Amino acid sequence: MSRPADTPIDAATEAERLLRICAACMYCDGYCAVFPAIAGKHGFPLAEIDHLAHLCHNCRGCWYACQYAPPHPFAVNLPRTLAAVRQESFARHVRPRWLAGAFARTGWIVAVVVGAVTLAALALVLIAVPPEILLGVHTSGGAFYRVVPWGIMTAAAGLSFAWAVVAVAAATVAFWRTIGPRAPLRIVLRALPAALADVVTLRNLGGGGHGCNDTGEKLSGERRASHHVLVAGFALTILSTVSAALLHHVTGAPAPYPVVSLPVLAGTLGGVLMLAGVAGLAAVETRADREPAAPAETRMNIGLLALLAATAASGLAVLGLRATAAMGLALTLHLGVVVGTFLVLPATKMLHAPFRAAALLRAAIDRLIAPPRRSGGE
Ligand code: SF4
Ligand code: SF4
């Protein structure tokens, strides 16, 4: 099962070779959900490899434990190979299909699209809004809409958001068609709570309580903690947006809202937590051992973190500058970043969230249909 070192090979073919070695070895049984899922299997079709790649939560434990890692002729590097499969899998399932090429150039695409949309928004505002309005101090209700009219703001944000939701949902459906088991609906419904619990708690990133090899041989819980902080911040910004929309439409009170109000408090705390989570994940990414990492996945991680940081920082700038003459430009910048982010989102690592949830649901279904087989001793 060894491979000549200079043979060019695609990630799925390499994953098939490694998974067959692992299924025979099973030393890492108990490290994660991948190993129970491959126990007793001798062949791995592409759909199975897709599922296993997203079931791997990249803890890298099997890399540091593996007696067949390089320089052994088997050259087993399961984390790097499954990370590379994940990138191929995103490109195979992305919708619309013409976005597939974007994954190879995710850094450029993110920078060019978000930069172009933001510059276009700034140019439009500079052309269309009189300087005394754009650079004026507006503090009364509806102040934001004096710079960017409400209809234009909601149409730009709403349409780009709808595009992102539809494209990500279509990619997720395509992925589920690939990995979904033939199970009755009642089994799927029974599996849902366990899968949801895995998603919400990020249980796997805890490495069974000991942490993961986030940056090297030393175990840590950094990635899990930063992930939680980022998701909590993101959820608070959603709460801020929804509560502001409700206040606008139900009570008829347009933004900006007082400092002590749900939209402002949730938005501020959410933005700060998002930046803290991004900083934590970026620190892990920067210090991480490169050997078990796939360069394409690292680029996608950094691209998504940069997007989230730009969105959170520009949102906080609007909150901080809303009673000053800089509000108009800060608002335009934020709107451009948000719309650009929604436009590129379906071609970013954001797909990881629903794909990982789908893989965890499939694993929960498998546990109900056929409880995992363990190698001897457990
Ligand atoms: S990663 Fe290495 S040690 Fe672990 S199961 Fe696979 S071959 Fe065995
Ligand atoms: S990197 Fe971690 S999650 Fe992925 S296969 Fe290895 S032990 Fe499992």
From TrEMBL:
Transmembrane regions: 107-130, 150-176, 229-250, 262-284, 304-321, 327-347
InterPro entries in the record: Citrate_utilization_prot_B (IPR012830), NarG-like_sf (IPR036197)
Record bears the keyword Membrane: yes
This protein's UniProt keywords: Membrane, Transmembrane, Transmembrane helix
Record flagged with keyword Transmembrane helix: yes
Name the record gives this protein: Signal transduction protein
